[in-house]
Write a structure and sequence with these properties.
Elements lengths: L1 E8 L11 H10 L4 E4 L1 E2 L5 H14 L5 E3 L1 E5 L6 E5 L11 H10 L3 E4 L21 E6 H4 L7 H8 L2 E5 L11 E6 L6 H9 L3 E5 L2 E2 L2 H33 L1
Parallel strand pairs: 1-2, 2-4, 3-5, 7-8, 8-9
Antiparallel strand pairs: 1-10, 5-6, 6-7, 10-11, 11-12
Amino acid sequence: MEHLAACHVHSKWSYDGSWSLEELSAKFSRRGCRVLMMTEHDRGFTAARLDQYRAACAQASSEKILVLPGIEYSDGANRVHVLVWGPVPFLGDGLPTSEILNAVHATGGLAVLAHPSRRDAWRSFDPCWTKLLLGIETWNRKYDGWAPSKTAPALMHTAGAIPFVGLDFHTQRQSFPLVMALDMDEIVTEETVLDCLSSRRCHPRAFGLPLSESMIGKVLPVLGMAEGSRRMLASIVRFSRASSRS
């Protein structure tokens, strides 16, 4: 059976989130998602706060949707970000990526490299990370916009990782038809979802369709033009607002 999961979502537990866990649970449940893969920023978290957060995610879950707690860790330069789920204690903030990945692996967690195009994070990729990463975000709505990442495919071939799609949801602007499809017959719990992911029984979907290399090759030119137009329009709007304030 296929269950849809919204991946890379921030709530008010992140310093820059704008939605509560309950609001997000209701929103994504209405969109047909069975799992909400949260990824709060490491900044401001502690071990005690992580325990409180896990309890809050359980409280926000329902029979319709599982709110899966997770943390987005960033290195000291705030360049490389890693999405982490599973029974991982709070690791701290500003740690080297290799240290984060090794700790996640040692504690039975799962790690996905986030938005490799942001600040050219892909240039910092270390081949040693290959065996420690479950996946790589091939499409991040916040930073890649309306088209997939142009830098992720090369990393995918190098790392042999699962392609992930993430909303990087902070506000309504990051709403977009990107989900992970989980192939699982078990009852949906944190443990069964993590097992499904670690067993690689999952794949990305965009606009309701499986996101494959062939699909990307066919639609990328169109999506790229749409993203270029979107960015241009956004620049015009920002310029107009700045001019009106001056």
